[in-house]
Design a protein that fits this description.
This protein has 894 residues and is an alpha/beta fold. It has 36 helices and 24 strands.
Amino acid sequence: MNPIQKLTSLGQSLWYDNIQRKLLESGELKAMIERGDIRGVTSNPTIFQNAIAKTADYDSALIPLAWSGFDAEKIFWKLAIEDIQEACDLFRPLYDETEGGDGYVSLEVSPYLANDTEGTIKQAKELWERVNRPNLMVKIPATREGIPAIRQSIAAGININITLIFSLDRYAAVMDAYLAGLEDRVAANEPINKIASVASFFVSRVDTKIDPRLPEGSPLRGRAAIANAKMAYDAFESIFTSPRFAILKARFRARVQRPLWASTGTKNHAYSDTVYVDNLIGPDTVNTLPPATLDAFRDHGKAKLTITRGLEEAQMFFAELKAAGVSMGTVTQELEEEGVKAFADAFTTLLQAIEARRKNAVSSLGPLADSVSERLSQLEMDSVAARVWVHDPTLWASDPAGQAEVKIRLGWLHSIEDARARLDGYLSFAKQVHEEGIDRVLVIGMGGSSLTAEVLSSLLAGANIEAKLSLAILDSTDPQQVSLAAKHYPPDKSLYILASKSGGTAELLAAFDYFWKLGKGNGSRFIAITDAGTSLETLAKERSFRKVFNADPNVGGRFSALTDFGLVPAALLGMDLQRLLVLSEAERSRNAASVNSPGFALGALLAESALAGRDKLTVLSDAPVSAFADWIEQVVAESSGKHGKGILPVVLEPLGAPDIYGNDRLFVYLRNNGELDAGILALKHAGFPIIELPITNPYDVGAEFFRWEIGVSVMCHILGINAFDQPDVQDSKLRTIAKIKDYQKTGKLADVDLVNVSDVKLALNKFLADAKTGEFVTINAYIPRNQETVDALQALRVAIRKKTKCAVTAGFGPRFQHSTGQFHKGGPNKGWFIQVVYDAENDFEIPTQGLTFGTLLRAQALGDYEALVAAGRKVLRIKLNDPGDLSNLLESLR
């Protein structure tokens, strides 16, 4: 039995004198409860000052409150109450198990009210109602003005933790106030059996105050605090064995008001670091420990019944102390006044820090601040948060067909619960693969079905975290890319994941045919992630795939990050899925009850930005987390680019000086190592709206997935767009299918409107000459995606931006068709599209399909081109001799 277990068996409960959001979000507090380390939590203004003012843990929750128009104090109470509610929920099983004996979480009234009886009563009732948890304790200081507030609050049925008790006289008044409050309640015919209270008697501060008043080497030093507490426990036993309490207990099942030893961290290093725990152990008591003291006691504490020992010595001690000229009355009055002031000062410092962050958050919105605040107010009046969570389809569609589509696409709101139910399956499958020595995985799929896997693999690499295996995705039909994938992911060393919601995309089937033949039909090297009943599931069963994961059919591909499509690869990579889901759950909780939350605020910002003409969402990123920008691109573009509306994601465009950007920009900075800080600061000083999203480690992306899913959904609601359909994607697919059928019949691909790279200078400059500020240019490159072509496209983007003053996006085909493709055809008609194609060298056949990968790629490019033309878009097609000719395009602009 460890010291904590033994202490608990002696009738004392250890509570944790600390709370902060990272303890909740990381699962650490939950683990401490489950281990039996702690049986409650206390908080005070100093604790919240350290948690909020001295860390960035609360920024993601603080910023939307600032955008909503909350002042600093209102922000504090919202943040604090969220933490207290979550902690109460974590302790609720213990509270129920002990029938209210333990499992309490304490929240203190404003320290500004320490000498205000009526104000304290009013706020105690407000906090009790707002937290709305039976295991809350409201903390009220034991000042003279606090005593009547304690009585009335108990009479009102509120659990009370009385704090800042130093003197025995004041403790007597505290116990009397508790009993009187119970008696008042009984007189009003109200139950008292569930009312709990503790009296927080401060300990170490007594020694800290008295020791300097005694001579060096005095035997009285270091004894006052424990003696004072032992005398207090004696007073407790006297009152709670008295006839007055016996009647309340026998007739009405009243609970004792337990003494709680507070301020038990050792401040004098000459004393044992567990001295104020070891010597105050006894039944019906609580000791609330700061983190260091809890760790010390767990390691080497001495759990023995000590609180009743040495009572006579304690009484004699105070006689000796008085003889030494030290007045306990003076000392305890000074301690109370200093305690009240210290908490008030900490609260003031905390509010000042929140106010500075509030101002910074509002200023980051630039000209959008007022409209975002007004929009959030409107969302609240329209009960949008509640309507999202009850799956109200009228938020996104007015027609029956659209509403029907919405109803079967909102499963992502509950993906985390679903993932927890599937967690053992993910982990056991990954363990099996790892034990077999399979050291690489190739995910074959498009858009949302594969992007999450790519993001997670890239984030681990960016953080220098070694994954269990190598993972890449194949979302191209370019023969060079297919060939390279086969080289690096050969069948004898690899597992192939076919990932598709619908199960029938052309890219997936072409790649499957190729790798199936390459692997000589070894189904044990293939798994499928797809909806139940798809053609891919049928294929997997016919070919004896190793496993089929049936994803939730009520989640669309671009919202599937926290489903099988993301979590199976995450498990194979060796990620801590519990940690990923805990952070996702925390974000979900923040967005579950209010529009003043990260996701809803993001949605309001995106929508108001688009409505104000700032419809180019420019996503900048530090290199280690840049892959997440591509995920943002697909969820924003494919959800919003419809009916001439939407916001265009401009991802990873090289950062330039402020004067190259127009007033059509909203900036998002994915910050990891701060490599773009100087450029971002310049944009802020120039007045551009810019928000920073810190991603400090790969697991932060769990919360970001959910934030963006909520944000994009809310944005689409505001803009009047159905976020969950993709009406313009199918046109390009059908045109591609038609081109392939023609080719299979005739052996020819009827390519049209191509400008050869040797003749491109005049055509390209003429094409771009009419582009106007506020429009955009897009490069759709049907060429291999590798570092050389990425760098060339980035340079080309910069040159075109300089020439046109327009935002410039770039994507590799056919990959982009499953992300920005919807926006290109269905969004605002402001685009100038440059399509780049080439005749692939070293082309090869797609088994069973009667065409080559290169031909399929060109057919996809042609289908995309014709769909753009049919949508009235302005398009220039350029044929390269090889991908290296991108440099010729760059030269033609100079």
